[in-house]
Model the fold of this input.
Amino acid sequence: MKARGTPVIRLRGLEKSFKDLPVLRGVDFDVERGGILALLGSNGAGKTTVVRILSTLLRADAGTAEVNSFDVAARPARVRESISLTGQFAAVDEILTGRENLVLVARLRHLRDPGAVADGLLARFSLTDAGGRRVSTYSGGMRRRLDIAMSLVGDPPVVFLDEPTTGLDPRARVEVWETVRGLADNGTTVLLTTQYLEEAEQLADRIAILHRGRIITDGTLDELKGLLPPARAEYVEKQPTLEEIFFAVVGDTDSTGGGDRRTGADAK
Done:
């Protein structure tokens, strides 16, 4: 478990309503530098609303929010310079190759040597062998990895991942998990929203549960487990999980990015 550090994301008393429907009723949480906080909640809990406020796409009705020491409402331009946002669906151009997608974003951000930037990110996300192929030939996991790579052009210190594995198969989901772990290992601060409890267990340093517009609990996995009565030792015959069966049948995940040679509809 990582030690608590200086908060890079800080929310206090955040409120937001849509007409007469209150969605956020006073949300408070922090994310320390280089940490991964998983924001859990059911559909309609307000997770995406939190992300949209933090990324300056939506204004809060009340409360304060800071990202990288900048107030979201008062200094939105500086916040946008500090962040990257990856939504629920990969925002990639299927006509272009993977490398061309990255070069395009690097040029839009006026970076020097866009080709070198693209090549570095392709290598970092194990997509070098696939970099010259059109994205329409990529599998779901490869598209999502490319999407996250595009969001890191320019090395933003804070990344928002809004349900990044929605619609992905188990193999692709594991690929994305490995990518997210790599972000934190490189010092990126990550706010991850998800509906998948296992995803939060696998990735997060801390977990916050959003329910009916409020954070009802926030802590490490061990701290959250401590809210329940102590476990009793009992003999249980362990059965393999469906995920274990799946990977045993299909084989190990190919994380090289170049081994999946399906094309067209078969790759989607």
Remarks:
- Confidence is low (pLDDT under 50) at residues 255-268.
- Residues 154 and 252 are 33 Å apart (CA to CA).
